[in-house]
Write a structure and sequence with these properties.
The chain has 189 residues and is an alpha+beta fold. It is built from 4 helices and 5 strands; from the N terminus they run E-H-H-E-E-H-E-E-H. The protein has a 5-stranded antiparallel sheet. Helix 2 crosses helix 3.
């Protein structure tokens, strides 16, 4: 049997990308020397639909039932499964996941926050939670709206670790992001 790409990892790839070895092949980053800190990330996604469908969604009257309860659980489960879905993500001891929703006139914002005490961040877990929760909302409404659209999947904020805290400009100022999600001091559905 031929062995392919068994080149030892070189810490500094020519591109400066940590997930690439010197020869350009993928690697899982060595985080064994990183400090354990409390880390948190918040991500969002938006599902666009019609006012009529969103009214049914908010009232829990969709043909498939309570879409928000299902989507919340789907997002939480997805955060825990991130390393199984994203090949170079490290398994993390996730300590908290929240998935919240903000109903708008023609969209629903999904807001997922993931927290851990570990050696690497949880941005991918938050993005996965928000994405899968949005996909679950889509699945629950597709019978009544085949034209629903998912948009604006992104990280809003992160904290902890060597790189410190980061917040998107609109989230930091409390201006609602274009996704329709709630700013930090706002209420959540």
């Amino acid at each position: 049997m031929d062995v392919v790409n068994e080149t030892p990892a070189v810490p500094d790839s020519p591109s400066g990308l940590t997930h690439l070895r010197h020869d350009g092949t993928a690697q899982m980053v060595d985080v064994s020397e990183k400090a354990t800190t409390t880390r948190e990330a918040t991500a969002t996604a938006t599902v666009h639909s019609t006012a009529e469908v969103l009214e049914l969604l908010g009232a829990g009257e969709l043909p498939k039932g309570d879409a928000l309860a299902v989507a919340r659980v789907a997002g939480i489960m997805a955060a825990k499964k991130t390393p199984e879905l994203i090949p170079l993500c490290h398994p993390l001891p996730i300590s908290k996941v929240t998935v919240d929703f903000q109903l708008g006139r023609d969209s629903i914002g999904v807001l997922a926050t993931v927290k851990t005490r570990g050696v690497t961040g949880v941005e991918m877990e938050a993005l996965t939670a928000a994405s899968v929760a949005a996909l679950s909302v889509y699945d629950m409404i597709k019978a009544v709206d085949k034209h629903a659209v998912l948009t604006d999947i992104r990280v809003l904020a992160k904290s902890g670790g060597k790189s410190g805290n980061w917040t998107s400009d609109d989230w930091k100022t409390g201006t609602p992001p274009r996704t329709g999600t709630v700013p930090p001091e706002g209420g959540r559905a």
